[in-house]
Amino acid sequence: MAAQFETQWEQCLAIIRENLHNEEAYKAFFASVRAGSYQDGKLTLLVPSHFVYEALESDQYFDLLKKTLQRIYGPTIKLGYRIAVVKAKETDNQPDNNASIHLNAQTRPETKQEPAFDSHLNPNCTLASFCPGRSNELALSAGITVSSRPGENAFNPFFIFGASGVGKTHLAQAIGLKILENDPAKRVLYVTAYQFKVQYTDAVRQNRLNDFINFYQSIDVLIVDDIQEFAGKNLIATQNTFFHIFNHLHQLCKQLIMTCDRPPVELEDLVPRLLTRFKWGFIGEIERPDYELRKGILRSKCEKEGITISNDVIEFIARNATDNVRDLEGVINSLLAHSIAFNRPIDQELATRVLRMIVKIESKVITCENIINLVIQSFNVDMKSLNSKSRKKEIVQARQAAMHLCHQFTTLSVVRIGEVIGNRDHATVLSAFKKVDDMLQTDPNFTVRYKAVEAQLKAKRD
Question: What is the pLDDT of residue 266?
Fold first, then answer.
């Protein structure tokens, strides 16, 4: 028999479902949530992942959840969460220590005392959660140096640039968080260039420009995101004010960190003396993540969310979502929501469905036709011979290579590969796989030809 608090939670779900007016949202974020325990006026909900927990805590759903709980459990109800998934080296229902809330308060209190100075840093953007790779290794290495000796290094200012979504903001904020971890007394401030412009305009209108400048000149580590927002002939006054703040901080050996969507040399309509100062320290690019880094980011995201996705699906996503980190994170979030809402496993079919809503994948699909054309060129045979019954060594090897590569680079079944290449049976194709594996160990000439095709296919895929 269900305990009373469990029955009450079922009543809450019914009310939430009725008031949400969105069946898919209900299935994605509420239907899988269970009442775990109730003790001393505190209800602990079991949620399937951090993703669902964050959704329940969002402005979109929290008010409805709060009012419903107070209606059913009473106005003094407290709320906690536990992530009810099994993670590697962790136990089921491991508590999330930061997920305890007093619902009868006017606002949601922080679990820690509010610091005297708000740095506006995202606590999730840490160095530990920043995935390293060839595309960001130089910027990351320099950033670690900055975090250990802010203002007292050759990388001041620290200027990183790159396309949208490659991790610039994450790295900049991670440096700030590490500096605060090493010295909590530091005044570290993260601000976007747009926010700075708005604050400057308000200060001028309210005759508080001196206060504005004095505040910024008191900062120990200033992080300005999207610095390209300062460019423009109508922003000369903003640029000049930032120039004086920059100079003051730099002369006092305070650390300046900036992100941009382009290198300084490509910034237009920026006063020359400010542009010159952007070039004083470190300038580094974060490039689009390569294939290996994309896989690493996906695995890290899955671990964080407490979900398991097969390597085949991870590789499929990494091959197709190539532009930026945000796309990768968006795919995982969408996969999780779809999996919960429709109660189905996260497989390649579901991944394809989600990917088509986020990225274009058609141009990256490798077909047997692509593979066969490359094999014909590399092994110097023709299409007719490849599909014939010929037993000549060079033709047989080309045919076997094509089968093996189709198995490696496409999702076709063994039976279908045999049908496409010479209408061979299932056993012949399996035999080809084994013979190719043997030849790659013993036949240098075959290996060179095979690897040439494989390299071209990997380049097209990645």
Answer: 87
CA separation, residue 453 to residues 379, 396, 403, 431 (Å): 9, 16, 12, 20
Structure-model confidence comparison of residues 21 and 220, the more confident one: 220
Cα–Cα distance, 167 to 286 (Å, whole number): 7
Cross-strand partners of 258: 159, 224
The half-sphere exposure of 39 on its side-chain side, counting CA atoms within 13 A, is 4
Give the whole-angstrom CA distance, residue 130 versus residue 275: 29
Per cent of the chain over pLDDT 90 is 37
Domains of the chain: 4-102 (3.30.300.180), 137-285 (3.40.50.300), 291-364 (1.10.8.60), 368-461 (1.10.1750.10)
DSSP state at residue 84: -
* Angstrom distances, CA of residue 290 to CA of 128, 185, 334: 19, 38, 22
**Which two three-digit tokens encode residue 327?**
């796309």
Is residue 51 very low, low, confident or very high in pLDDT (cuts 50, 70, 90)? Answer: low
Q: How many other CB atoms are there within 10 angstroms of residue 386's CB atom? A: 20
> Tell me, what DSSP letter sits at residue 131?
P
Tell whether pTM > 0.70: no
pLDDT in tens, 260-310: 999 988 888 888 888 888 888 999 999 888 888 888 888 888 887 777 888
Helix segments in 252-347, DSSP class H: 272-278, 291-305, 311-320, 325-342
Integer-rounded Cα radius of gyration of the chain: 28
